[in-house]
Amino acid sequence: MTADPATRREIPDATVARLPDYLRALTDLAERGVASVSSEELGTVAGVRSAKLRKDLSHLGSYGVRGVGYEVEMLAHEISRELGLTQDRPVAIVGLGNLGRALAAYPGFVGRGFRVVALLDRDRQVVGQEIAGMIVGSVDDLEQIVTGNAVAIGVIATPAASAQGVCDRLVAVGVRSVLNFAPCVLSVPEGVAVRKVDLATELQILAFHEQRDVLAARECAPRLEVAP
Amino acid sequence: MTADPATRREIPDATVARLPDYLRALTDLAERGVASVSSEELGTVAGVRSAKLRKDLSHLGSYGVRGVGYEVEMLAHEISRELGLTQDRPVAIVGLGNLGRALAAYPGFVGRGFRVVALLDRDRQVVGQEIAGMIVGSVDDLEQIVTGNAVAIGVIATPAASAQGVCDRLVAVGVRSVLNFAPCVLSVPEGVAVRKVDLATELQILAFHEQRDVLAARECAPRLEVAP
DNA sequence: TACTGTGAAGCTATTCACAGCG
DNA sequence: CGCTGTGAATAGCTTCACAGTA
Description:
Rossmann fold
């Protein structure tokens, strides 16, 4: 399969992954009443170097003014459009343990392009409960609920053992974007996007850096001390 | 040729980020009683191609046997050691809203190289509560509690507005690894490692892929129409 | 034989440095 | 002048393909 990209410009994945950061930085600036920023200033707020920011933005088009900078509101709107946030996307959360409940109550969905339309759990004790203003449905009715609510994004917050099964059922009824909080790898067919968020992984990466620093410190300056 | 352990090898960041996945895959295999795996099999479980897996593992040393594969237990131990998980690292969680509570109760810490030793919040209503078997302390006592418990990793689950202040105080008393769940960029001095986990960012990246697919579909099949 | 470990090639991302424009 | 946008240079990552070995 050859997706001819002659007409549509291809935005690098690394750039896409940073666009949300830029959007948040712009939103913050707009709230503070800032109307225009340079790449240097915006880069500082978003945590990247100015050259990288300019290169990233150049993939979206020419929205800056030479000698001046970028208009905050306009750039925010263009990034929102590129990310597809101008329309609300229906989200379903499967698995309402501690994490699922926290996600259901997360305030970052509203007004940022997402709307939680369904909560699903397997546990009879949980089904029927009200969480974050919604009634939890049974995972037995997953297909019907997902289809009926036109769910676009599935959030999996079940134990690892159940995650693949839930994922398969979501994909089977047309969900093509999955956010996985279960600590396992999900297999999906071509064309389905999966992103994984895993606390233990992040901590282990941090632990490595701690470890490396300790070893490096020992090697370079075995008697290094920190003055108070 | 330089397979000497005294030689300090630099392990690429991309490799480090995948080691936790390999470790989990190996742990799963060990629980299922598997004693030995090929790079092809382990790669399948961990979700990477065999060549990438072998290249990654080659940075740690030569722990495989040609013609056979890798011994599961031994490789798991070597990765654990490289990640610095052979000793438990004390973790403090700051901010006990919905997310902080879920993190405090997260079962993935125990036995994986981490131990939650302190919970801190600013809210008088929350301080003194028992969460996940621990009493929540006041963020006013952050310095004393972090120092007293030899906290190595700080987890920030506060609102964005408080995150930088908490981070500064953690860093000031010697914490050099921070996991940030607040939706903002943290500034830290050289030598401090920060990793960010943000739900909204992940969803927005997924939204982009949805959007791109929709556009691509329209281009290939222009007769598609959206009902008003 | 069946597998690992690895140089080399290919690809992607970042940084540099400056041309070009308001 | 100051700043964006971008080709060129660099660095980093992934894939290939096979030599080497238990």
